[in-house]
């Protein structure tokens, strides 16, 4: 199986990921094995993954050729969510995704990306205090977008697993801050 995408910029980004140093190839493989759908959506700021419907949404402004490296980093971050495979998001899951993004930025020699994401590499996703720091970094990055901040603030610190990681919890998590928040992102142009 291969990841399902039709936009040329996304196809290029996936190809680049597959050809990069580690962890690029494993990330491309994660979405290929599951046949994940990857689409541009004007409702999204940055990127967003919903494993419950096996879909990655990417901000269409990242089609700008000047943002090609950032698109590869963003796709890598979202592939990490697919690779981790949970239905419900958590600060722990986001920290792992941002660490992955830092490694992709390093593999690309993308200085701006490293400046944004390298700080996550010093944190340990199994340590509660480090997850608090990770959330501070994430909220700081989302400071221009209160709806995004609300979504992150609603996340459980540690990853729910087993019966706690279910589709209903995922829907509840989404609606908590929700689709409305994502739509207002669009209006605010964040
Ligand atoms: Zn994420």
List SSEs in N-to-C order.
HHEEEHHHHHH
Our measurement of the CA-to-CA distance between the termini, rounded to an integer number of angstroms, reads 34 Å
Q: Within the largest sheet, what's the order of strands?
A: 1-3-2
Q: What is the average of the pLDDT values?
A: 91
Derived from helix and strand composition plus strand pairing, the structural class reads: mainly alpha
**The number of domains:** 1
Q: What global shape is seen? A: globular
Number of strands: 3
Radius of gyration over C-alpha positions, nearest whole angstrom: 15 Å
The bound ligands are: zinc ion
Q: How big a fraction of the residues is strand?
A: 5-15%
Unreliable residue runs: none
Classify the helix fraction into a percent range.
55-70%
Separate helix tally: 8
């Amino acid at each position: 199986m291969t990841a399902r995408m039709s936009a040329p910029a996304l196809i290029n980004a996936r190809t680049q990921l597959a050809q990069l140093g580690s962890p690029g190839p494993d990330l491309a493989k994660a979405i290929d094995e599951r046949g994940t759908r990857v689409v541009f959506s004007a409702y999204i700021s940055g990127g967003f993954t919903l494993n419950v419907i096996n879909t990655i949404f990417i901000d269409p402004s990242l089609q700008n050729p000047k943002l090609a490296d950032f698109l590869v980093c963003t796709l890598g971050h979202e592939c990490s969510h697919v690779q981790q495979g949970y239905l419900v998001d958590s600060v722990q899951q986001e920290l792992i995704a941002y660490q992955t993004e830092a490694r992709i930025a390093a593999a690309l020699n993308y200085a701006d990306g490293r400046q944004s994401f390298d700080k996550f590499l010093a944190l340990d996703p199994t340590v509660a205090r480090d997850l608090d720091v990770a959330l501070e970094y994430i909220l700081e990055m989302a400071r221009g977008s209160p709806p995004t901040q609300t979504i992150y603030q609603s996340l459980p610190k540690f990853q729910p697993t087993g019966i706690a990681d279910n589709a209903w919890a995922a829907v509840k998590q989404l609606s908590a801050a929700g689709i409305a928040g994502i739509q207002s992102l669009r209006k605010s142009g964040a």
